[in-house]
Design goal:
The structure is a single chain. The protein is an alpha/beta fold. Strands 1, 2, 3, 4, 5, 6, 7, 8, 9, 10, 11 and 12 form a 12-stranded mixed β-sheet that branches.
């Protein structure tokens, strides 16, 4: 999940994290990730400090504008990429990433170390956190939010919702998969029903969420854990996630090491570190997602919605159908 303050400071973070390391004998582990992960308020600083305690190295995050942007960067750079690791892809991008041939098996033992609500066993990708996509609303302004995806489709066209583009944003892609998983071949009709209510489609999560916070939309696509941020960081409890009867689509964020990593030994150590307590304990109150490994959750997580059904396509299904489903989405919204 993209933290709010963290994203505001993205430009600063990018400037701080993309400065080349000075000449030194200390090895540098270079990690490509999305901007809010590396920001001052994201998980990056605490994770960097914890790993550097024992690695005799420097961890350098390179902040990019999105998870899709991370994959695009390493595809563009190819085998000569300076990245040792990428951190922040998700299961919807895994197969596409794997098919580039740029990533190496991680060698990390996953069995008994993950706490995901779904089975996860992959030799190239290590899960770092997970969550559910959800529409967020202001409970002081909306007394009766939709209780299902169908209710949102059938809502009056005066309802104002803002979503993200599935071609540039993993939350946007998550909604595309959510709708497809509920409606199947009727997904185009569902998008046509949603279209009059969609006031804009943004490139990334923060653009959409900021519009919602500024009162420009009644609901925004985000995460079921988003209200926890407002409760813990702002002591505001008016923002809620709408629980939908059809269940919610999951996101599992993952990391992978590059086959041509300049620091392969450090990269393997970091891949194993991802499921360690010093990494996982940082996730709930910095990335505002559920940890993929064992870690305590703050009290604010106890009041979050618990979807009755978890929806998730396999990486292979997404890779095989994504372009067709995106075309379907574009046709419906352009009518």
């Amino acid at each position: 999940m993209r933290t709010i303050l963290g994203t505001v400071m993205a430009a600063i973070a990018m400037a701080m994290t993309t400065v080349p390391a000075q000449a030194t004998d200390t090895p540098v582990l270079t990690i490509y990730t999305y901007d809010s992960f590396a920001s001052e308020w994201g998980p990056g600083p605490a994770i960097k400090e914890a790993f550097e305690v024992d690695c005799s190295c420097e961890v350098q995050f390179v902040a990019l504008d999105s998870s899709i942007g991370i994959l695009g960067r390493v595809q563009l750079e190819g085998p000569s990429s300076k990245a040792d690791l990428v951190l922040g892809l998700d299961t919807s991008l895994m197969e596409t990433a794997r098919n580039t041939g740029l990533f190496a098996p991680h060698g990390v033992q996953l069995a008994g170390r993950t706490t995901l609500p779904v089975a996860f066993d992959d030799d190239h990708f290590v899960p770092l956190d997970w969550g559910y996509f959800a529409f967020i609303y202001n409970s002081e302004e909306m007394a009766n939010p939709p209780t299902s995806l169908q209710a949102l489709v059938d809502a009056p066209d005066t309802m104002r919702i803002v979503i993200q583009d599935p071609r540039t944003s993993t939350p946007g892609l998550g909604l595309l998969l959510w709708v497809r998983s509920v409606y199947g071949d009727e997904a185009g009709d569902a998008w046509a029903g949603l279209a009059p209510k969609i006031i804009t489609v943004t490139k990334g999560w923060w653009d959409a969420y900021s519009m919602f916070l500024e009162g420009e939309a009644d609901m925004v696509l985000s995460y079921s854990t988003s209200p926890a941020y407002h409760i813990v960081a702002e002591e505001i409890d008016k923002y809620k996630a709408a629980a939908f009867d059809e269940g919610h689509y999951m996101q599992v964020e993952v990391a992978a090491m590059l086959k041509n990593a300049p620091q392969p030994d450090l990269a393997r150590r970091f891949m194993d570190f991802i499921l360690a307590p010093d990494f996982q304990s940082v996730i709930p109150t910095t990335n505002w997602m559920y940890p993929a490994g064992k870690a305590d959750l703050p009290d604010a997580f106890a009041g979050l919605i618990q979807p009755g059904e978890s929806r998730l396509y396999s990486p292979q299904e997404v890779a095989q159908n994504k372009s067709v489903w995106v075309d379907e989405w574009q046709r419906a919204l352009s009518q």
